[in-house]
Amino acid sequence: MQIDRESLPDFWTGRVTVGTTPVQIQAASLPLRKGLYLKIDETIAAAIVSLGKTASVLGFAIKAGQASPMLFVDDLNKLWLVSTDAGTIVTWIAF
User: What are the domain boundaries of the chain?
Assistant: First the structure.
């Protein structure tokens, strides 16, 4: 298989409003084949969103206007987010 020619049968997109209390990207299980990318809306320019595998372990930070690298997870509900500012919009695309 040539990785540059790999095609996935489906993908999903969504958005979540994140505040200063940790939230799951999605509570319901959504099995993924590869993972996902996150993008932090730049409306709140000072916002920094942290993500992690539980509500108490959040450490990977992304600034407003930035996108994450590919996050290799097998289910969307395994990621939690928290922001330095209320009302931060995070959009995502998952494969």
Answer: 11-94
Q: Is the dihedral of CA 56, 61, 67, 72 positive or negative?
A: negative
- Domain 11-94: assigned CATH number: 2.60.120
What is the C-alpha to C-alpha distance for residues 86 and 20, in angstroms, rounded to an integer? Answer: 6
CA 29 distance to own-chain centroid: 14
Amino acid letter, 13: T
pLDDT by residue, tens only, the chain of 95 residues = 555 566 667 899 999 999 999 999 999 999 999 999 999 998 888 888 888 888 777 788 899 999 999 999 999 999 899 999 999 999 999 99
Opening angle at CA 62, ends 55 and 36, nearest 5:
75
